[in-house]
């Protein structure tokens, strides 16, 4: 399957596809922003309002943390893993040479977006559509993942670099306590963002022929 030039009816489609192609994982980040905090807030807020969810259940919960508040997340993560080191569950050398520097690089960024799912909010829909009850938790997680991707694309479009992390359940309890979050909010991912200080690694692709098929063309 070769790539051929196509013409779209709406020029925004080309722009969207370019954003998808250019989205990368950036680990080298600094605590500076190319846009206002209000603009960042609008991006994250619009993800909460407009990213779809099955049966319009709206179970995604999102917290935006900037500057010193963002740094607290990674202080919590460092402390949690230091506890594992002290308990003998994580080798001290690997923590000091690998894990801690990585966490400190996240801390050096500008912000973190915390993505949660409120599974308890699904109780009414599970009761109403009992035949699908076991599907609603995965559906909620899929909606949350769409929010993560939307925010990631939008932030990179505005000049940020970002990387997506998953430090649950190590940090969950302390994060909920620090920001007074409801117990029903279950943390799924942490999107770290800041101004890039280095280029991302080379993007690699498995053969598209093994992953995509077209019928009826």
What layout of secondary structure does this protein have?
Blueprint lengths: L10 H12 L6 E2 L6 H14 L9 E7 H20 L5 H16 L3 E8 L4 H6 L7 H22 L3 E5 L6 H8 L5 E12 L21
Helix pairs in contact: 2-6, 3-4
Polypeptide structure, described:
This is Nitroreductase domain-containing protein. Pfam families: Nitroreductase (PF00881). It is found in: Cytoplasm; Nucleus. It contains seven helices and five strands. With 217 residues, the chain is α+β, with helices and mostly antiparallel strands. It has one domain: NADH Oxidase (3-Layer(aba) Sandwich). Helix 2 runs antiparallel to helix 6. The longest helix has 22 residues. It is globular and about 60 Å long.
């Amino acid at each position: 399957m070769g790539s051929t030039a196509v013409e779209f009816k709406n020029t925004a489609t080309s722009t969207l596809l370019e954003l998808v192609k250019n989205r990368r994982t950036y680990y080298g980040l600094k605590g500076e922003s190319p846009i206002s905090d209000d603009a960042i807030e609008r991006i994250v807020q619009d993800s909460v309002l407009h990213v779809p969810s099955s049966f319009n259940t709206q179970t995604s919960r999102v917290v935006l943390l900037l500057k010193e508040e963002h740094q607290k997340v990674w202080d919590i993560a460092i402390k949690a893993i230091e506890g594992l080191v002290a308990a003998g569950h994580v080798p001290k050398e690997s923590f000091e040479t690998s894990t801690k520097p990585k966490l400190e690089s996240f801390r050096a960024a500008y912000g973190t977006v915390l993505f949660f799912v409120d599974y308890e909010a699904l109780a009414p829909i599970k009761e109403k559509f009992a035949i699908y009850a076991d599907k609603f938790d995965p559906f909620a997680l899929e909606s949350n993942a769409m929010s993560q991707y939307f925010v990631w694309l939008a932030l990179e479009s505005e000049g940020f670099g970002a990387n997506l992390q998953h430090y649950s359940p190590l940090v969950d309890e302390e994060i909920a306590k620090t920001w007074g979050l409801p117990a029903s909010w279950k943390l799924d991912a942490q999107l770290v963002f800041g101004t890039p200080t280095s280029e991302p690694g080379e993007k690699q692709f498995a053969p598209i022929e093994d992953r995509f098929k077209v019928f009826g063309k």
